[in-house]
Protein 1
Amino acid sequence: MDYPHKKATTNLPVIEPILERWSPLAFDPKPVEEEKILTMFEAARWAPSSYNEQPWRFIYAQKGDKNREVLESLLAEGNSWAKNAGVLVISFAHKTFELNGHPNHHYLHDLGAASAYLVAQLPSLGLVGHQMSGYDAESANEVLGVPPDYGPGSMIAVGYYAGQDGIDAGMKEREDAPRVRKDLHDIVFNGEWKASR
Ligand SMILES: Cc1cc2nc3c(=O)[nH]c(=O)nc-3n(C[C@H](O)[C@H](O)[C@H](O)COP(=O)(O)O)c2cc1C
């Protein structure tokens, strides 16, 4: 199916990938082409980072891949819809600088930037993505052999949109809900901090 347009309704015109990206629940289990998978990681790779440290790391698994079932088993019950996603990604970031071992206080900031680049690439590939904090991050590091100086980021379901046929009423209600954001003047202040309403 074509890219599902649950487009953002912005007050000012913004670039197309931002308009088009959204977080659906209904994933089609069909596999995602390897080149598309690599392309989304290529986008993440080009995110900016403090001292160009590039602290982000990603593990991914399609259905049938090593540890795919392990990743599925880490999902919180409320995120079990993500088991249908063609690709499950789990992200980590290096908490210390490679050069000197000093703490990198921006490791999660930079991982967030890379994740945002990754999901922003998806619409042009005809894919959808949904980031999740609802998974067992502690066990993820353990079972996937992640070194202790890498902190967990998120799990990201990536794949083809299934459309709304066959999804249960609860999921449909969530998918139909309007996409909302805080007002610009509640998050952006000119010159000094202002309490929001
Ligand atoms: C770090 C992070 C964690 C999230 N965790 C979950 C989650 O566990 N389950 C879920 O259904 N959605 C999760 N979301 C999705 C958000 O609810 C969603 O991005 C937000 O409602 C805005 O909707 P949109 O992405 O369609 O614009 C998460 C998003 C982010 C960025």
Note: The mean pLDDT is 95.
Protein 2
Amino acid sequence: MTSEMPKAYEPRSAEPRWYAFWEREGLFRASDDPEDTRTPYTIAIPPPNITGFLHMGHACRVTFEDVLIRYHRMLGRNALWVPGTDHAGIATQVVVERLLAREGKTRHEVGREAFTKRAWQWRQESGDRILEQLRVLGASCDWSRTRFTLDPELSNAVTEAFVRLFEEGLIYRDTRLISWCVSCRTALSDLEVENEENANGELFDFAYPIEGGGEIVVSTTRPETMLGDTAIAVHPDDPRYQKHIGKNVVHPFVDRRFPIIADAQLVDMKFGTGAVKVTPAHDPNDFATGKRHNLPQITVLALDGKMNDQAGDFAGLDRFAARKAVKEKLAALGLTRGEKPNPMVKPRCQRCNTVVEPMISTQWFCRMQPLAAPAIEAVQSGKTQLIPEHWQKTYFHWMRNIQDWCISRQLWWGHAIPAHYCAEGHITVARETPTKCGTCGKGELTPDPDVLDTWFSSALWPFSTLGWPKQTPDLARFYPTSDMETGSDILFFWVARMMMMGIHFMGAPPFSRILLSGMVTDERGLKMSKLKGNVIDPLDVIGGATLEQLIAKAEKGGAQGGVEYLKKTYAEGFPAYGADALRFTLLSYSPQTPKIALSMKRIEGYRNFCNKLWNAARYGLIALEQSGGAEQSGAVETTERPAAPKQLANRYILSRFAAAMQAAREGLDSYRLDEASGALYRFVWNELCDWYLELSKPLLAGEPGSEQVNETRATLAHVLEATMRALHPMTPFVTEEIWQRLPKPKGAPKSVMLARFPEAEVDGLSDGDAEREMTRLQAVIVAVRTMRAEHEVHPRVTLDVELRASDAASAAALEREASAVAALCNARVSVSQAGGEAPEDRALAVVEGVSVLVPLAQLVDPEKERERLERDIKKVEKDLAATEKKLGNASFVERAPEALVAEERGRLTELRATFERLSAALKKLKAS
Ligand SMILES: [Zn+2]
Ligand SMILES: [Zn+2]
């Protein structure tokens, strides 16, 4: 059977082969059998945008989610991972507009209908490219349940949700000041606006002439909006302006006069001149002031950011050109009173970075406070848990201060708002297209031209994907879902809104745990960006890329100056590390860290780990084959765990395996995937490969069919097979490739992904005695190996090692393990229970109370031996001092548990004896 196992593991051939197998066999499919009583475990994937390409952030999400899904599937749960994509309103519209631009057309020229048709055509052609890419990572999504937010069923869910919220008075239409992107030409929600702190700005002072004489100087950061001013405000307590309150000023450019008002809420006496202009149509604070004082709202900007007819001579100018022109004209009139730099906050469109314009506009809003209250309660009561916990504070703060959500967008790609208007302006909101006005009964209705914010449909995702509003079996079985794993950056955009909608429409929070992970950055901790040229494409890491390919890609993406970094950091390009290596690397960072600074060295390390696993399995198969004897011809009868193994190595590895499973389960259950993967890594590398496989060699060399050989064969086969099961959720491909070749228990399923995750520590498996005994054996072996290494003894030279135990019991134990020492150290080993001084022609090491003696003549160099002894003595002296100090501390001796004090005393005695023995050996060596 080993002839089938090549020397090296080849992820490039194994990964696509096994993925195709899993998919062909339908292994990702969750059961919809009504008889299936398994507890469901459900994750709704954060739907990537249809415009998207796989990036490291996706790779990280998908890895974490796939590990959870595979783990719970292996625990015997009916696991469902719902995949799908988001129609991505603005992003898709931009892509299609770019296509049109190549043909020299704009969307307004082709018209809405043709544009939408074109967008669907693009969608058909580009398909679910990003979902194909998720497959490369090993994502075990139930593809038979793939959803798209613009699918008829999901669109139906959006209409239903809108109509119900409207009927409940939670959705309404209103005219108010909203955030407007003049470049995207749409309203934005508060969340889509990013505030640039400390942006360059200036404070500009100019004078308004007062009717009847005099002037009042105002300070402003946006002079062009003075064309829409409808008042000047001062503080009611400001002595400088008492005499002016109630007077009118005269606008210098347009035929308008307006009052000087007193307003304590708006005006800060210390800011600028203490007098401010009020532009209710273009500033949120002024808007509120205008409401308080019944001021007219004069809009001077058009939706494209140019000044409109209200701006008089400035009409048609872009807002920034208008700023300059207004300042010049004020200067020409002698009204300028000074300017100075003024760092300020500038709101920018999250998508296109354009400075956002506050505009008065009629939009649809969703009332959030009534929806937020139960969503706050769900987290407060622990029905839904936020991990890491510190996000709770942010969540509560945002939810308690939540503002109504502007949900209408002036786009063409998205869910139509199910509202119609009659000639009288009455609104009819209905599930089906209405034929007459719900208020006056008139026909000829006009549909609302807007679409809904993309996040409106995403908010319904956990239940719309399961069939809502229809009461489907899937909805009954899989809602609420189990875990929501996503980036902390969309906690409010998405997670909080799913919480609100889920509770509102389904009566229960949509998930029991929210796992918020951080951002993947380059190894310097810098955000990956095309401009910086530091983007690491997961597909390059998996499939390999030369440095030339990496540079070409960065340059195509418009990288500026990032190429040097690439040359320096990835001089060799990427070999094909495989998906498993990338997954294990992503898992090795704490999922709770805000930044995952992806290191290629780590990826390399985990690629080596996959190879180590492969080599361990290969050794195991060969060893099983060769130790089987003629009749068994290598076949292993069973991979059940041996009930009561006698050999120390077997007892030890089963005990350590149980401990590793305990740690792995704890990590997986508590979303510490780093701890789970770390425990398995250490088990495989330090315990299984470094020790057990070595120790199994002399055991398997015994008489075929003997108890010792049979027991070791069973242990080796069991541990290898079960280790593949434990690692499968993390490294699915290499474990499947190996598992399929290993001996398996009777009735094993067709894939490791359907096998059971190994049990955690169970009765009788944890074996403290074996672990302690192994610690001593390992120390002895390391001591002999160290002597060999330090004296540069050729590996083929057999040493004569004498082990002296301090008591009969340990002598007997050492006797049992002598053959292991002999095999692992190339030595002839004798054991005695002799005290007294070491003969002077021997080198001596004392470990765990055992004296390890080797004839000096075999070690050649007495000088090196002297150095080693001196070093060992120093170490013992240090340990002695520490132990003496501890026991000299009265409070320790009085307060510590008796057993602990006794242990320290025993240690002191042992250290003193060791010190004596080493010192004596050194003395003799010096004398000789
Ligand atoms: Zn924009
Ligand atoms: Zn009407």
Note: The chain has a mean pLDDT of 90.
